[in-house]
Amino acid sequence: MPSSLFMDSSALFTGVASATGAARALLVLAEAGKISVVVSQQVLVETERALARKLPQALPSYRKALRATGMRIVPDPTTEELAPYRGLISHQADLPILVAAMREQVDFLVTHNDHHFLRPEVQSGSGLRIGSPGDGLRWILAQLAAW
47 falls in which pLDDT band (50, 70, 90)? Predict the structure, then answer.
């Protein structure tokens, strides 16, 4: 079974908006079936809004990427699922992303949001590997090399 990565909206945005870079490479690996990418409904909404506002010409590429990567779209966590984790991350708007990744038991949470996610207490409290697209790509390449 391929390794699974949860991409937040910052990572998904850069993967679609840029023709190069680690986030784009992760999407290419997903298209090739080498990894599995997971996103939540919230990630889709945030990404589409950001693209529509900042880079509307990229919306067709975004929609194509959703189909081509076989991205698994999961529901947002319920209020009941979020409750035990209140306080785990300082920015509560990011809590549904973190809990969705935890619930789906992904191998890596990919984000550009280092201010909120890349804190030792968030990583240890969630039990997730969390890093930038570059960190995620390095981890994936090491996993693929080990096969």
Answer: very high
Name the strands in the sheet holding 130-131, side by side, starting at the edge strand that comes first in the sequence: 72-74, 35-40, 3-7, 108-110, 130-131
Residue 119 is part of a domain; what is its CATH number?
3.40.50.1010
Distance CA 5, CA 110 (A): 7
Provide the 8-state DSSP code for 110.
Answer: E
Nearest to 71 by CA among 139, 145, 7, 141: 7
- Signed CA dihedral, 68, 46, 76, 117: sign only: positive
φ and ψ of 76, to 5 deg: -65, 150
Evaluate whether 4 touches 39 at the Cβ level (below 8 Å): no
Tokens of 65: 């990427």
Its domain, for residue 135, covers 3-146
Residue type, 59: L
Residue that the structure tokens 């920015």 belong to: 91
pLDDT band, residue 147 (cuts 50/70/90): confident
